[in-house]
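so ive been stuck on this for like two days lol. basically i have the seq below and the ligand is S-adenosylmethionine, smiles is in there too. i just want the complex predicted, nothing fancy, no docking runs or whatever. if the output looks off dont worry ill sanity check it later, just need somthing to start from for the group meeting slides
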Amino acid sequence: MRWHEVTVHTTEEAIEMITNFIHELGAGGVSIEESGTLNKQRDTSLGQWYELPLNDIPEGRAVIKGYFSDTTEMDSIMESLKRSVEQLADYDIDTGSPTYELKEVDDEDWANAWKQYFKPLRISERLTIKPTWEDYQPTPEELIIELDPGMAFGTGTHATTSLCLRTLEKVIQGGEDVIDVGTGSGVLAIAASKLGAKHVLAVDLDPVAVSSATENARLNGLESNITVKLSDLLGVLRESEAEGSEASLGVKIPVQVVVANILAEIILLFVKDVYDVLAPGGTYVVSGIIKSKQDDVEKGLAEAGFTVTECHEDQDWVVIIARKL
Ligand SMILES: C[S@@+](CC[C@H](N)C(=O)[O-])C[C@H]1O[C@@H](n2cnc3c(N)ncnc32)[C@H](O)[C@@H]1O
């Protein structure tokens, strides 16, 4: 099958928003490539480090590709996309004078092209992400996350994902029930489980993410430790309570840890729901927050009753650790 490939050359800062736009316009898949230079400044405040594969994308820049079926009328798609990207300036998101390309490609080209950049990635002292198709010899202390993200978000290379992974490594002590909101490829749910969580409920609004996370949980032999559900934020909790089917969630409410790597605007929509679902003493690990939105999210967390205990940054992105005291 032939596809229309739309390429946007932009900044790392704009990745999440532009990816969302492309999905909303009906793309069958999106691929993201960020700068992979090894001399990037990294936040080491969590006392850890990680490695990135190399590519030739300049520091701070990113290349986003969206794929639309060959029956799509592309003029209006390109127009809407450009309009939405222009409007990001209103939200202080720097898109770096984006440029656009449109061409036709074969199915096989785009389904596999991104794989050359996805290599085993040591995220922290203990967590390493390994693409399923790569060979890797771990050291005895490493926990390996086998991953084939397909078209779902979450290879671990994005700053927000790695910030969450490094934070989970500190937060998970063993035996917790955990909810991962916006699980994408399931990378955070799998990490939580490998770090010792008792059970993880992983939810996502996107059916592609739900099947990717389900498959990745299986690849890691964690299908009985991770329950993946299609859900708009924590909606599945309300539905299961109404139906009396809470047991199907796998976790016992209230839980000890919630992790969410979603845009700040979405995080603010369900802060109170997270507070209600956490046990006293529970921890909320929240990322997907661009630095300019950090104050808004901290304010929302405080209003819901949380105490912010730590914040860490990487490339303009922030992870916040909040506790329900
Ligand atoms: C930035 S990705 C994070 C993926 C993965 N957790 C990671 O850390 O790499 C955000 C995910 O949130 C999902 N999402 C966005 N809005 C959502 C909503 N209202 N309810 C559930 N999931 C949502 C998206 O489909 C996407 O998979």
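Confidence is low (pLDDT under 50) at residues 37-53. Residues 16, 152-154, 161, 164, 181-184, 187-188, 203-206, 209, 232-233, 261-262, 266, 288 surround S-adenosylmethionine (CB under 6 Å).
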